[in-house]
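Q: What would this chain look like folded?
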Amino acid sequence: MASTDQVPDIEQPDQKATEEEDEVTPWTVSSKSEKGINYDKLIDRFGSSKIDDALLKRIEKVTGKPVHHLLRRGIFFSHREMDLILTTVEQGKPFYLYTGRGPSSEAMHLGHLIPFIFTKWLQDTFDVPLVIQMTDDEKFLWKDLTIDEANRLAHENAKDIIACGFDIEKTFIFSDVEYISSCPDFYKYMCRIQKGVTFNQVKGIFGFTESDCIGKISFPAIQAAPSFSGAFPMIFNKKQDIQCLIPCAIDQDPYFRMTRDVAPKLGCKKPALLHSTFFPALQGAQSKMSASDPTSSIFLTDTDKQIKDKINKYAYSGGGSTVEEHKEKGGDCSVDVAFQYMKFFSEDDERLAQIEKDYTSGELLTGYLKKELIGVLQKLVGEHRERRAKVTDELVREFMTPRKLKFDYGTDQQAKK
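A: My prediction, written as structure tokens:
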């Protein structure tokens, strides 16, 4: 392999981006188009692969189940080596899931739910272990939060994640602040990753500058470490060759391009990935929702009235400016936020297709589309609130306690020192 002193070693996206192109980084997502990010161009820039019909059919063949609606509708649209995960399953070999959450606010919003809804389906469908990283250290480094407050928010957000219905016998949720200090194996992986990636490389990938604190520069190694099964000795019995699959939003891909490059240097398998599109803000798809702006999103703590008021007041419409214009020209589902939210959360394909047909023709008015969405979201958020209310601090501690899960693994005789 070429020297790691050169930036091109990393699986880099095409660097020919211009000012007119979408900006997609782990911290900034913006587009000049009202239709939002051009995901086909993003696939080309990042060098990932499009999830096509052939892959969807193979997933159905391997699992014996219909694919999740988030896959059917192209919301999870891109991947890195999902085909190898399916081959792993066909060969009867194990793999595990890894996803995460950066706890920067007390309450999570609908956009935060997407990876967890899909990850739960993956876990249920493939019957595999799941590790969920709460990056409280990251939020301390990037946000105006104390380390203790970031850690508290990690525990609060864990309640929302647990309320998604994850099986405690198959799931380990961990705070970086807590777990790194208790697991030497995890810290050893961090050190090995840090040694295998140069400052020149992380500067090229993440755009770090000389004014960034050194914590930011070293953080990518922390997000990379859970990609390797050896970082969880209590779950995998010190085996270091268990394949990892990471469902995440496409803005997190830079972390895992770095991870995939460094994996062979550690003698480990590269993690596979499934990328989702971004959940649009109520005001439209040109930017990602902000947890700090209550009008930009529906929060999982919102009441039925708040959901109704936010959708009616803030949800960007793709309909005509008047009823007459709408009936004449029809609505544009590609920019209409209410329709886009229905794509994410309505599981009824036939109903969604009918709504799209009627709204595009002008037969269905914006007010009626919003009314239908309000009903869907009030039910979704209401049921989530009820489940969350039953999640105790004790249950959170159980999920976040390092322990063996229900899966059995043999001992790795070639454990790295």
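The first helix runs from residue 39 to 46.
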